[in-house]
Structure formats: structure tokens, C-alpha cells
Amino acid sequence: MPSYIAPTRDTRFVVNELLDLASYGNLPGFESATPDITDAVINEAGKFCAEVLAPLNQVGDHEGCTRHDDGSVTTPAGFKEAFKAYQESGWGTVSQPEAYGGQGLPHVMGLIVEEYMATANQAFAMYPGLTTGAVSAIMSKGNPEQQAKYLPKMIAAEWLGTMNLTEPHCGTDLGMIRTRAEPQADGSYEITGTKIFISAGEHDLTENIIHLVLAKTPGAPDSSKGISLFLVPKVLVNDDGTLGERNSLSCGSIEEKMGIHGNATCVMNYDGAKGWMIGEENKGLAAMFIMMNAARIGVGIQGLAQAEVAYQNAVTYALDRRQGRALTGPAEPEEKADPIFVHPDVRRMLMDAKAFTEAMRALSLWGGLQIDISHSAATEEERAAADRMISLLTPVLKGYGTDKGYEVCTNMQQVYGGHGYITEWGMEQFVRDARIAMIYEGTNGVQAMDLCGRKLAMNGGQAIQEFFAMVDADIAAAKGDEVLGPLAEQLEKALGQQKAATMWFMQNAMTNPNNLGAGAHHYMHIMGIVALGLMWLRMAKVAQAKLAAGSDDKAFYEAKIATARYYMDRFTPDAGALRRKIEAGSESMMALGEEAFATLA
Amino acid sequence: MPSYIAPTRDTRFVVNELLDLASYGNLPGFESATPDITDAVINEAGKFCAEVLAPLNQVGDHEGCTRHDDGSVTTPAGFKEAFKAYQESGWGTVSQPEAYGGQGLPHVMGLIVEEYMATANQAFAMYPGLTTGAVSAIMSKGNPEQQAKYLPKMIAAEWLGTMNLTEPHCGTDLGMIRTRAEPQADGSYEITGTKIFISAGEHDLTENIIHLVLAKTPGAPDSSKGISLFLVPKVLVNDDGTLGERNSLSCGSIEEKMGIHGNATCVMNYDGAKGWMIGEENKGLAAMFIMMNAARIGVGIQGLAQAEVAYQNAVTYALDRRQGRALTGPAEPEEKADPIFVHPDVRRMLMDAKAFTEAMRALSLWGGLQIDISHSAATEEERAAADRMISLLTPVLKGYGTDKGYEVCTNMQQVYGGHGYITEWGMEQFVRDARIAMIYEGTNGVQAMDLCGRKLAMNGGQAIQEFFAMVDADIAAAKGDEVLGPLAEQLEKALGQQKAATMWFMQNAMTNPNNLGAGAHHYMHIMGIVALGLMWLRMAKVAQAKLAAGSDDKAFYEAKIATARYYMDRFTPDAGALRRKIEAGSESMMALGEEAFATLA
Fold it and tell me: What is the SS3 assignment for A327?
């Protein structure tokens, strides 16, 4: 059975040393985030996820969820007990506002818990995970009555939430949804329609489920400007907060799918279900994006998560399994063969994983810090700048993070050779589970267009220019330094490729927007490479300072610097190839009509 | 349910127009390979695979194989009947020698049947597929008595064969095997040991199974120089060819695995089973490589196969599914949305698949032609040159073909969005089935080392120099041409990267062999890019000539040229990045010791 240890030392490195969270103590919410508190959260969350959730990961995959004839759904054995432990431990409340029963810690801390949970058991983590998005939407767009009625219970995980967007005929293009919302005399709505792919749509973990549902009111515009968001509880909630009647909605079936079997992916039928509008009529898309943006960063972290657990297990296997001899001569001549760890091609895959996961952890938590700053910084200017940065980075975290996370999982499975293909070793589950993250919450193609079509152009390109200026500043500061200088030079080349690609878009996308679409996915990857590279430069800088100060933890910091060097050697060269692909434009890509794609017998 | 149409038009293009098989009519075996014969084989094989095998692909995945308490194994519903049809149609005999009941057609033709079968149903195709390797070994190393006794039945698919290499503690490093072979007075051996991952090790398709088993004779050297190959029938064969006693071997269990569920992956227990040595004592590795090389090209074709079927279905979906609008304005304004085919990111994935599958088909069949020439050319010089070329290309076909095939499958699944993750659509099965091809018959890391550690150095680098000369000649001939010139220039850049990488290996691998190991996987990919690029240049040249001659089939040839342009635009830039990674060497890759890979809590 695969194992999982929460990488708490690395998380503490990011929180205490790289981000230096304590230095933000003047921000509201951060005053209580002292290192002793954050270390305790990190260590205890890690322990909980490793001890309670990880052992259920393979069980959940094998058993899956069961829908009964009455529409009820049973989660895999052990999930219910583990969820009870989750509720009691309060891990869902970490970064939620104290006003609703949360612990009020920075968003960064909540993301750490999200990472550990998704790493230990992604299918389980999705039950409370989707709730986070629903909570954000209610918190930002709900009225005070709705907030008071639902948020405390949802934050306490007494009730869970869902996001109902997709319908059989539409996913990305939400303007096409058909679910109807008929206004009632009492101010509520009757919701009728079918939603598909609803993660955690029905289950036995909580006594109520709060569905947030996109629907159209009568006469609404026939586009994405005509959708509204509704809160539709599984069980109606009385004014005193007790549970009332069962609402007219049900799980019609559970999808059979490639992975995340422990999570119930439901077809949800709304048959005149009672619902209440969240926010304004026809402004559902904006509310939906609030859910989405929270969810997208969480999904990016899932890419990291599956890569992390696959990596940990592949390391164990590579040190244990003996095949062949080191190319440089037997490493352990007294044994019949050397551990496969000695083979460069195995080491390549392990280093790739290490270089990705550590930087991705840093980038996602740094992104979380931007969210905190965007909410809490003293000045509007600081808040707006942080908001621009995280808006720009969100599609990169999601798109690059999950593309690369899946690739790492595939490589870690490869380390196992034939055993990687066998179910009991658990590696193939990581690949199957990781695969969904490239698809849901907006496919990675949608992320690429969000980045290139919307975010690059935001405020006349202000965000991307600020990103460039930030990376430039780090590079400039590192240049000339014996250790950091060479790293900075390699990063500078990659950044140069990104700048050139950006310029190419500016010059070529106006005349033909397909030139943007044709290069968007490549651009998202260049930006991922540069953003993770920035994290490596910064991590190497921290490590260098610690070593200079004579730290006891020499091996840890030396490994950071060596991994930074590996990253620059093996990740940054792709930026040039990606730029060349972007500059090839859309001509040869779009040249052929549909008849050229038919298979001719 | 996914569908499959055999791409017979494209195969005929390769066979008749690109390879011009008829022009080899002076070679033995080719005289009967006239276009009317080869076209008939292509068309009928395609029909058989599409009509008989493809409909069982999803069934096989869902049902899997069942092992009963007596060790017998039942294949999925329909497999037995389909196999009967396969036997009767004689598809397994196409390129086998007439002396043993084969049709004596060129090897190329057998590979076409292999492609179609693997595309329609990989799990099914593996039952006869493994037999091909066993047949090659017996044909080349068996004695006349063994050949007469087993080959006709195996070629007729009355009996199937297997390859038994892997043991629980060793796969790649076969010198470590523990299966013993005790010589008996009658010249036979008693085989005792456990083999794992034996594809088609037990099943209900044929009344006998001929296992080829690697084992060690008493006192054999404790290395790969001490292994011998044995023929161990499931049911002993009497001298008159009738079946006798059941041999003492059995299937201990079937592995649960990620995919290819329709094929029984068996643990095989040999308990003093009667076997006969194939070839010489302690020369089993050489015999094994004969099986392996045949199998490796077949596995490379599996990469193409899964990519092809995934591509065909993704095209259908992309034309059917409507979401959003073309970036250049509505393509079908009368509809609510445009087909997703209009979106550049979808087209990118489809064009990538098209550019890969068509060139991979050309390359694998061109490789098959080299095998034929290596067997049948008039002069030893021609035979040896063709043998060098296919030896060099085999790891590239297997390693690059399956890496890229898996990537294409993943992308085709991505085209489906959320539906790609759902079992019933069938796309996720293609990904799971494609995954094994990167692992078995030598992991792709082993292929990379075979290429860089053995094949590059063969005869002082003669093979790679001949490859360079061949590509150079095609580039030189194309230069200056309006259509072909630009393609040739792009290919020349990629070839330049490969040459530089080769040179770097020569200068840096002697002092530190890890420099070779660290770049081997990247090098295999550069060479895959160049080799497929050569096929595109040649296909474009054929297409150009056909267009110039006023062909009726204008659209087909124009699509070839457009796809060649896409290939050069989007595949060749990676060669430069890969070279830079190779030139980074092994230093940062191997810098860290095992303690740096431990997860620290």
C-alpha cells in the first residue's frame, strides 16, 4: 500500500522562511499567525491527513460510492468516521472568518490544509473542498440573512456545499444552460433542470447539502448575461435553523469514471426544488467566478498533491528495488544489483518531481498570501496590486500545475516499471486521480484562454508588466552572486522568452485572434516555468543565507540550492521551444477544414 | 461507445505511394506483394478489425478476465468467438513463411495487421501478438524438430505463445532470475520457478499455449550470461503432433491492473514442468532479444494504435459538441454555439494527433520494410545496412512512439472535457491501455539506454552516421523547392540539434557515463522528432508530386502538405530544448544523495 508523510518541514520552510508570514503581523488576520501557531497548524494538519485520510485513499478507489434506489448515496467504508473526525478537528475552519465560527487565520494556512488533504486522499478532500467555493460565493454575494443561516453550519462542516454548473449539453459555455428558476410569491424560486458532473452532489457525510445552482429566470437574456445563482438546500432549513422538509431534488445516478472513485460524481435532478437567489438576477456568472477562482487554486494544488504522494512512494521504491548497476561502476558491489536510484534516468524523473512539487508548493502558498494581501492590506493600492497578481496567476496555478502534476504522476508510476501498472501498488490510482484536475473547474484550455485572452490584457497589461518587473527585480538582485547569479541568468533567458511571446501576441493577436488561441496553452506553460523558476531563485536565496549563517540544517538548504540548479537546467529550456511554437502562429494549425480530419477507408 | 474505422486510405498511401512496395518486386517475398494483393489485405484486415474486434474493446475492459479455482482463465464475453474468426481468416499468417503455412508476404504487411488489431482492441491483439515474438525465437534459434513441431500450429494460431522473462524481484536485470532448469536424461529439462506479468499466460482461446521461459541451468554463470531459453508447452505434444499430458505449470493468479483488462496478465508457476532448450545453453539472452525486438516494434505500434483510435473519436466529438464561439466570430451563427472544432486549442490537440499518427504509421512501416530488406536484399551490404537502421530505430519506435502515443491519448481525452473522464465515452480506457506500452518490453528508460548506450556506439557510430546521411540527403534534395524547402529547413534545424547532442555525448560520456544516462531519454525524443520529420518531408514530397500530376484526390494530398507544415512548426522546436537539457549533463541531476529525497516532517 502506498504511504504518505505530510512534508511539514518543507511547508514550514515556505511559511516561515520564504514567505516569512510573521513579517505580515500588521495585517488583520495575521496578528495571530505567529510561527508557533502556524507550525502547530501545519504539524497537526499533516498528522491528521497522514493518519486518518491517507489510509482510506485506496479503499475509496476500490469501493467507490453506491447509489441506492431511493437516491441516497453511501460513501466508501471509513469515510463517514473520518469525516466526523474532520468536523471535530475543525480543519475546515482554519482560514474562515471568526464571525462565522472560523479561526480567522490567513488564507495561506487554509491552502496548506487543502494541500495535505488532497495529497492524502483527493476523493475525500473534495467533499469539504467544494464547500469552500460555495462559502466564498455566499460570503461575498449572499444577503445577511442567508449568510447567518448557512455560513456557520457550512464552515463547521456540519453541512457541505456543492457547485452546480454543468448540464448535459453545456459545460464551458454556461450561457446555454436550460435549468429554469420560476419566481414564487414568497420571494423564493422553483428550480427545475438537470445538472451533471456534480462532485459530492449526494452522500451520507452530513445531514444537509447546500447546492449552489446556476439557472435562468423567465425572460432572462439568452447568454451568460442571463444566468443567476441560487442556493438550493437538500433539506429545507427552518427559520430557527432546524431542518425541515426534504426539498424536491435528487441524485439520479452516479457516474462511472476514471478515478476519484471515492467521491460521488452525481447527476442532480431539480424538480421544482425550492431555492433562493444569491446576489442579483442575471449576475450569476460573477458569483460563479467567485466560487471558481477559489476552486481553481485548490485544483492547482491537487496537481501538486498527487505529484507529491506519487513522488514520495517512487523514492521509496527507487531505493528499495535493485536492478542493474550504476553506469559509473557498482554502487553496492556486495549486493547482486544496485538500487535503481543510481540510474540517471530514474534520478531524472525523481528530480523532476522534487523540483516541481517544492516550487509548486511555494508558488501556491505565495499565491495564497496574495489573496490575503488583496483582502487585508492597509492601502487600496496594495490590495489591488495583490488582486491583479493572483488573478493573473490563478490560471497558471490551475493549468500548468495540473498539466505538470499529471506528468509527474505518470513519471513516478514509470519508476515502478511493471509494478506501476498493477493496482495494489497504488501508483496507477495517483495517475487516474490526477487526470481529472486538468479537466474540471474549467479545462486547461479554458485556463489558457483566461490567461491570454483576459488576464494579459487586463488594465492594459498592467498585471503582466508587474509580474515581469517583479521577476526582473529578483534577477537583478541575484546577478553577480556566485551561487544565485547563474540561476538568475538561466531564469532570465526563460523570462526573455516569455516577454518575447507576450510581444508577439500584442503584435499578432489583434489582426487574427486565432494567433492568441493557437499559442495560449504554450504561453501558460512558459509562464508556469518562469513562475516556478522565480520561486526556485527565491528559495535558493533563503537557503544561501541560512547556510552563510551557519544553520544546523545544512543538508536541507544545500538540497534546495542543488534542486534550484536542476530546475534551471531542465525546466527552463522548454521556454524557448514554447516561444517558437507560439511564434508559428495559427496558420498551419487552422489550415485544414473538417473534411481533412475524417478517417478515409 | 467509441468507434473505429481502419485508416486504410492512409495505409495504402504509405504502402503504395510513400514506400512504393511494388518497386521491391525483385526481393524474395515481394514478388507476390503487388498493389492489388496488398490493397486487398489492407482493406480486408481493416474491415475485420473494425467489425469484429473493435466492438469488443469496451466489453473486454469492463469484464476483464476471470481465473477459476482450477487455474483456468476465461476471457471476456465474445473474445473466444472473435478469436475463432481470427484463426479462420488467417490474419496471423500474413507475413509468416510459406514453409510453415504462412502467406509469405513482406513483414510490412504483418505490421499493418498488427496496427489495426492493436487499434481496434489492444487487449485482444496481445493474445496473438506475443506469439509473434515466440515464433521469431523458435524460427531463428530452435532446432528443425522443434520448428516442425510447433511453428505451423503457432502460425495458424491454433496454439498461442508467451514470453516468460520477469520474476518478482527482477525485470530489466534478467541476470538475476532464479527459475531453474534441471537437465533430464531424455534431453528435456525440468523447469521450476515463478514468472510474473505474463501476458496471455493462461486463457481459453486455444487448446495449447507454448511458453518460452528464461531459466538457469545448474552451475550457470550468475549473470545475464547464464540464462537459457526453454520451450515449455502448457500441454505436452506427442510426436505425432497430438496433445498429450498436461504439463506441471499453472496460472497462480491474474493481476489487477490499470488497463488492458481484456488480456490476462498472469503469475505463472512452473513446478518441475517439462521443457526443451531453444538454442544454446547460456545464450538465452540473445534468443530473448530476437523475441524482444519483434515485440518492441509491435509495442511502438501500440502507441500509434491507441493514439489513432482516440484521435478518430475526438474528431467526431469536436465536430458534434457545441460550446462558445470562434475567436474570429461565429462560425455557425444560426446555431446557439459553434462546434468546439473551431477553437484553436482544440485544433492544436487534433493536429498534434494527426501529425503524430500519420508519421508514426509511415515510420513503423518504413521500419518494417528495413526488416524485410535486412532479410531478403540481394547483397550482404544492403542486408547489413538495413539491419543497422532498424536496430537503431527500434528503441525510438518503441520509446518515442509510446511516450508520444500516451500524450496524444491524454490530449484526445482532454478534447472531451468532463465527458473524457467518464467511463462510458471510452476515452479514459484508451489512456489506461496506452499507458502500459511505455512500460513493457523494456521501459522507455531502458529503450533510451539501448539507443544511447548501445546503438549509437555500434560499429563506431556507423548506424547513426548513416541515419544522418539519409536525412541530410532528403533535406538537400528538398532545399530550394517552394513547398518542400521551408519544411526541409525546419527539419534541418532539428537534425542539427540531434547532431550537436550526439557530439556532446561523444565528448562527455567517456569521462562520465552518467552524462549519457542523464540525456538518453531526451535524445530518444530528439531522434523521434527527426525521424517523424523525415517521414513528413517525404510524405509532402509524394503529395506535391501527386498534386503536380493533377491527382483527383487533391484534398488528401493538400492535407498531407498542411500537416507536414504543422509538424515542422510545432514538433521540431522541442529538439532545441532537448539538446539544451542534454548539454546540462548529469551534474545537477546526480548531485543529491538519497537522504535529500526523504520527506521531512
Answer: coil
Residues B434, B465 share a domain: no
Residue B535 reports pLDDT greater than 90: yes
The whole-number average pLDDT for the span B260-264 is: 98
Mean pLDDT of A253-272: 98
**Domain presence at residue B15:** no
Between residues B171 and B309, which one has the greater pLDDT? B309
What residues in A contact B600, CB-CB < 8 Å?
A: 7-10, 556
Do A412 and A506 fall into the same domain?
Answer: no
Residue to mutate among A9, A315, A341, A345, with most B CBs inside 10 A, is A345
- Which of A394, A592, A362, A2 minimizes the C-alpha distance to B318? A592
Closest CB from B337, B516, B521 relative to A176: B337
My answer on whether B484 and B554 are in the same domain is yes
Instruction: Kindly state the average pLDDT of the residues A4-27.
Output: 96
Give CA–CA dist B557/B180, Å, rounded: 57
What CATH number does residue A296 fall under? 1.20.140.10
- Answer yes or no: is B67 within a domain: no
How many contacts (CB atoms, under 8 Å) link A and B?
295
The answer to whether A500 touches A480, Cβ cutoff 8 Å, is no
ipTM over 0.95: yes
- Model pLDDT, residue A371: 95
- Give residue A469's pLDDT band: very low, low, confident or very high (50, 70, 90): very high
Do B544 and B432 reside in the same domain of the chain? no
Q: Is residue B315 part of a domain?
A: yes
Indicate the residue of A9, A344, A589 with minimum beta-carbon distance to B518: A344
| Number of domains into which chain B is organized | 2
Q: Classify B487 as helix, strand or coil.
A: helix
CB B210 within 8 A of CB B161: yes
A13: pLDDT strictly greater than 90:
yes
Angle at B207 between CA B204 and CA B208, to 5 degrees: 105
Active-site positions of B read 441
Q: How far is CA B452 from CA A41, B67, B364, B516, in A?
A: 49, 41, 20, 7
Q: Name the region of B71 (left: φ>0; alpha: ψ -120 to 50; beta: rest).
A: left
Contact B258 A432 (CB under 8 A): yes
In B66-125, the residues whose Cβ lies within 8 Å of chain A are none
> Strand B180-183 vs strand B159-164: parallel, antiparallel, or unpaired?
unpaired
Tell which A residues from 236 to 255 touch B, by Cβ distance under 8 Å: 255
* DSSP codes of every residue in B209-267: EEEEEEEB-TT--SSGGG-EEEEEESEEE-TTS-EEEEPSEEEEEE--BSS-TTS-EEE
How are beta strands A159-164 and A208-215 bridged, if at all? parallel
Per-residue confidence at B294, pLDDT binned at 50, 70, 90? confident
- Asked if residue B288 has pLDDT above 90, the reply is no
C-alpha cell at A181: 428558476
Radius of gyration for the alpha carbons in chain A, expressed in angstroms and rounded: 24
What tens digit of pLDDT does each residue of A160-171 get? 999 999 999 998
Nearest to B209, CA basis, from B265, B165, B247: B247
* Full domain range(s) for residue A493: 458-588
Answer whether residue B566 is part of any domain.
Answer: yes
Question: What's the pLDDT score for residue A382?
Answer: 97
pLDDT of A283 above 90: yes
Handedness of CA A590, A592, A594, A598 (dihedral sign): negative
Q: Same structural domain for residues A544 and A435? A: no
Share of chain B above pLDDT 70, in %: 100
Q: Are residues B372 and B321 in the same domain?
A: yes
Tell me how far apart the alpha carbons of residues B162 and B244 are, in angstroms, rounded to a whole number: 20
CB contact, 8 Å: A1 with chain B?
Answer: no
